[in-house]
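User: Hey, my collaborator sent me this sequence without any context and asked if I could get a structure. I don't really work with proteins. Can you help?
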Amino acid sequence: MYQHTKTILTHGFSQPILSNSIKIALVVGTILNAINQGERILAESEIFWGSLFLNYLIPFCVSCYSASRHAMHQVRHSIH
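Assistant: No problem. I've predicted the 3D structure and written it out in structure-token form, which is a compact way to encode the shape of the chain:
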């Protein structure tokens, strides 16, 4: 299990995956914030900062994890 986690983190922190995950998080997070807090943002009301942060963090983590899993799968199948 430890090796699996280490491999995912190694792939996840590679420049291409990290860069792509940040781009995806910015797009998806912005859309989610517009949906969830758009009225508050436009009205300059109190913003829920925890939700704002999570709306960017969750897509980043999902993108990074799925890309890392895909990279692991590619490496595993290129060896066999």
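In plain terms: The chain has one domain: 16-79. You can pass these tokens on to your collaborator as they are.
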